[in-house]
């Protein structure tokens, strides 16, 4: 497994634009959107917090996770299958499952670095808060990342090649960003849309992230939705996934 991780890491470095995009996009958007005066003012809808304190960083971390889960991960695995690499590996001691595990670990690592960069840049530039409930933050990040990457594995399972995987991932990612409150804050969403957000993986993820920033333990319903999404989509990915 160490050798597979080393090789996959070398390939990731060689294909550095994808990793750089995952890292740079959320940080750049955070710094750019933070220039809007309203986002640096206390917002009654957010309990008196500024958007740059918790709401905006949580959304940027979500963006990093979705980028890794819905574009980088599915594209890489679909390309491996398209080129017959997984089929050939299945006849060697390097089982394709190790490649799958290495991809998950590396993409999670890239997303974790992006999360640290978002929190650090917000703190340095805008004096944003850092999560007070750190253990809860890590728990939410891991559960949310696992659930989103499980959805990415479903996309990788049904996509015929890398470009198709990227296209499907984009089609799924942008509606999820919308219901997560990227463009319309959840607090002013219509009831129907807010209910959809409550039962998506991304809505509870952002809400739980905000709770950890405020020093509160993530609410059980938010954690339950993420766990349910992880179980559902992991099972679906296993059922649909084909090595060739």
UniProtKB/TrEMBL annotation:
One of its GO terms (molecular function) is ABC-type transporter activity. InterPro entries: ABC-2_transporter, ABC2_TM, ABC2_TM_bact-type, ABC_2_transport. Residues 17-244 form the ABC transmembrane type-2 domain. It is found in: Cell membrane; Membrane. Keywords: Antibiotic resistance, Cell membrane, Membrane, Transmembrane, Transmembrane helix, Transport. Its main location: membrane. The chain crosses the membrane at residues 57-78, 99-122, 134-158, 165-184, 220-241. It is a multi-pass membrane protein. GO terms for cellular component: ATP-binding cassette (ABC) transporter complex. GO terms for biological process: response to antibiotic. It comes from the Bacteria. The keyword Membrane applies. Belongs to the ABC-2 integral membrane protein family. This is Transport permease protein. It comes from Nonomuraea maritima.
């Amino acid at each position: 497994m160490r050798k597979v991780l080393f090789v996959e890491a070398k390939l990731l470095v060689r294909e550095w634009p994808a990793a750089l995009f995952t890292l740079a996009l959320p940080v750049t958007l955070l710094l750019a959107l933070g220039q809007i005066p309203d986002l640096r003012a206390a917002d009654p809808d957010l309990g008196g917090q500024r958007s740059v304190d918790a709401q905006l960083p949580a959304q940027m971390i979500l963006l990093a996770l979705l980028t890794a889960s819905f574009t980088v991960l599915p594209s890489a695995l679909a390309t491996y299958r398209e080129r017959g690499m997984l089929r050939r590996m299945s006849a060697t001691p390097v089982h394709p499952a190790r490649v799958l595990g290495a991809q998950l670990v590396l993409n999670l690592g890239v997303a974790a670095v992006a999360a640290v960069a978002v929190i650090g840049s917000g703190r340095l530039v805008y004096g944003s808060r850092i999560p007070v409930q750190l253990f809860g933050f890590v728990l939410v990040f891991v559960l949310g990342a696992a659930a989103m990457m499980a959805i990415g594995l479903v996309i990788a399972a049904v996509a015929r090649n890398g470009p198709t995987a990227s296209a499907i991932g984009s089609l799924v990612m942008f509606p999820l960003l919308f219901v997560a409150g990227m463009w319309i804050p959840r607090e002013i969403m219509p009831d129907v849309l807010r209910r959809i957000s409550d039962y998506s993986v991304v809505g509870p993820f952002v809400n739980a992230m905000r709770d950890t920033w405020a020093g509160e333990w993530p609410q059980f319903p938010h954690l339950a939705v993420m766990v349910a999404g992880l179980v559902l989509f992991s099972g679906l990915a296993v059922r649909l996934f084909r090595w060739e």
